[in-house]
Amino acid sequence: MRPALPALLLGTALLTLGAAPAATPSPVPGILVAYPPEGHRVAFDHVILEGMVPPGATLTVSGTPVPTGPDGLYISWFPLKPGVNDLRLIARTPARPGQSARSTTRILRVTRTVPRTLPATPTTITRASITPAQPTELWDPAGDTPQDRQIPVRFQGSPGGRASARITGLPAQPLREGPAGTYSGTLDLPPTARLSSAALTVTLTGRDGRTTSAPAPGPVTSTPGTARTVTTPPGTIPGPGLNASSTRLTTTQGAPLLYPRDGTTYRAVGRVGPDLRVRLAPGISALITAAQTTPVGFTPPPAPGGGPLTLSSTPDHLQLHLPLGTARPPFTLVQTGDRTLRLTLYSTPGQPLTAPEENDPRLDRLTITTPTPGVTQLDRTLTHPIWGFHADHDDQGLLLTARQPPTPDPTQPLLGRVITLDPGHGGTQNGGAGSLGTPEKNLNLPIALMTAQLLQAQGATVNLTRDTDTTLGLYERGLIAEQTSSDLLISIHANALPDGRDPRGTRGPEIYYTHQQAKAAAQAILTALRAQLPDLGPGTGLKPDADLALTRPTTQPSLLIETGYLTDPGNLRLLNSPDGQRRVAQAIADGISAYYAGLAGR
C-alpha cells in the first residue's frame, strides 16, 4: 500500500510554505488581470487574457461577454486589431441582500505589432534591418572552408527590386528576394583578402528605376596569419555535469554544440561581434563568447599525448582515463544508447589512443575511431544502463566517469536513495501567471514539500533546492544535486502557453528530459500522474531531447515535470486546491517509488 500524506503533515507543509493560498476575491468589485501585463506587445491576432473577477460577477471586454466561473476565473482567447488595443474590462456584480449592484471598469492596453511593409515605390531600404549588424573578423582565411569565409547579408527594402552587396575593394555580388521585400545572400571572401574594417554596402534598384544604397553596421576585417589561442579560465564552469547554456559553444548557426570545462583550449580564427569563432577541427567551426575566454598567445595549442587508456573502478563508478598530457582539447560527451556513451575529442593525439590493458566486467565494448580529420571518437558500451556520467580534465588528460546504477532493496526500494527535488521558480521568479491569485512558484512549492515527505517516509534522503519562497539561480539547483551525489534531479513546474497559442484544449502533464538515462524515471512518473489524475487530461506526455537548464545535467538522471497547464481552467483549479496538490504530490512520489521498484526487479 502506498503511503498517504497524513493530514498533520499536509498542514505542516502548507505552513512551511508561508505563502498566500489561492486569493479570496474582495467583496468589493474588482478585476484581476494575471496576463497580459499592462502595455504588453504581441505579434499575433489574439492574446490569452486571464485573471479573476469577484465570484458571481459577469465580465465584458470591449463589449464582448467573456465567460467567468463560479470562482470568478476567466481565461479567454481574445482577438486583437492591428496596433493599439485599449481593452475595456467591466465586471458587474448583481445586487444581493444588503448590497446593491456594483460595477468596476479597468482599461488594459495591449499592442498588436504588425511588420511594416514598404511600398514598391519610391525605392527605399530600411537601414535598421541591414545585417551584418556587428563587425566580422577573419584571422586565418586560408585555413577556413569556403562556407567559413561567407559573410551573410540581409535587409528589408521595397519589393520587386534588384539587390546586391559589396565589400569595399571587392566585387559586388547579387542578393535574392524572398519573401517579398526581404533581400538576402552571402558575400564570398577570397582566402588571400586583406581588409581593415572594410565597409559592407547594400544596393537596391527599384521598380521606379531609382537606385539607393546603405552601409551595414558591421564592417569586415580579414588579417591572414593572426589566429590566436584562447582558453576557458579557471572558475568559469560551476560543475562538470551541469552543461550550462551560459558557457556553451554553438555552431555558427547558433545551435548548441559543446559544453567546455575549465582549461579547455581553442584555436580562435575569427570574431563575429562579441563571439570568437574557433576551429575545432578542419571544416568544423564554433562560436564562444569572447568575454568567457582568456588569451594565451598566437602559438597553436599543444597536441595531446595519446597511448593506452587506463580503466579504474569503485563499487559506484567506472572511470576511463585518456592520456592526453597537459593538453585540454574541446570535447563533447553524449548518451547515444541505453548503455552507450560517445566521447568526441576535437584533436588528434600524437600517438593513437588504444584500448586499456585492464578489464572490468561492467565494460562491454570500447571502440576508438577517427571519423574525420582532427576528430577522435570513443564509444563506450557498458553491461548495465547508463546512470549518471560526466568528463573533466585532470593533470594528465581527460577522465570519463560513469556511475553504477543503484541496486534497491526489493522490499524497500527507496531506502537509502538520495533524490533532489526542485520546486520551480521562487522569490523574485514568479513563473506562470496566477489567474486565481497564486503565482506558479507558490503552487510548485507545496507539491514539492509534500512529495519530499512521502519519499522520506519510504526511506529516501531528499534534498530540496528551496523550502521557502526564495530566489535561486538555475545552475545552483543542478549543482545541489551534483554536490550531494543525488540519484535523481526532479524539477517541479506548472506549464503555460506562450503568446500566439490558443489555450483551448491544451492541458495535462508533460515531462521533459535531455538524456536517455532519464526516460524510465520520466515514464514511471507520467504513468502515475495519468492514472491518478485523469481529470488533468493525458497531456502530450514525454518530451525527450529538451534543452533546459534542469534537464541537461548528466551526473544523475535529470527531468522536469510540468504538472498541468495554468492556461487551462480545470488544470489551474486543481493545482490551486490543497487536495489537488496532495494528489499530484502522491502521484509523483508513487511514480518515483515504482521506478526504483522496477530497478530492484531488474
Q: Radius of gyration, Cα only, in angstroms?
A: 29 Å
Largest beta-sheet characterization: 8 strands, mixed
Principal-axes geometry comes out as flat
State the total count of DSSP E strands.
41
Query: What's the total helix number?
Result: 6
Instruction: Give the CA-CA distance, first to last residue.
Output: 21 Å
Mean pLDDT: 93
Secondary-structure class? mainly beta
Strand composition percent:
35-45%
Q: Kindly state the percentage of residues in helix.
A: 10-25%
- List the uncertain runs: 1-28
Key features of this structure:
single chain, 602 residues, mainly beta, eight-stranded mixed beta sheet, seven-stranded antiparallel beta sheet, 6 helices, 41 strands, 14% helix, disordered N terminus
Structure description:
14% of the residues lie in helices and 37% in strands. It has six helices and 41 strands. Strands 10, 15, 18, 19, 22, 23, 24 and 25 form an eight-stranded mixed beta sheet that branches.
Task: Map the helices and strands.
Blueprint: H1 7-17, E1 32-35, E2 40-42, E3 46-52, E4 58-61, E5 64-66, E6 73-79, E7 83-93, E8 102-112, E9 125-131, E10 136-138, E11 150-157, E12 162-167, E13 173-177, E14 182-188, E15 195-198, E16 200-205, E17 211-215, E18 220-222, E19 228-231, E20 249-250, E21 256-258, E22 265-272, E23 275-281, E24 284-289, E25 294-297, E26 307-308, E27 310-313, E28 317-322, E29 331-335, E30 340-345, E31 353-354, E32 363-369, E33 376-382, E34 389-394, E35 397-403, E36 418-423, H2 441-456, E37 461-464, H3 474-483, E38 488-495, E39 510-513, H4 519-532, E40 541-543, E41 558-565, H5 569-576, H6 578-600
Parallel strand pairs: 2-8, 10-18, 26-31, 36-37, 36-38, 38-41, 39-40
Antiparallel strand pairs: 1-3, 3-6, 4-5, 4-7, 7-8, 9-11, 10-22, 11-14, 12-13, 12-16, 13-14, 15-18, 16-17, 19-22, 19-25, 20-21, 22-23, 23-24, 27-28, 28-35, 29-30, 30-33, 32-33, 34-35, 39-41
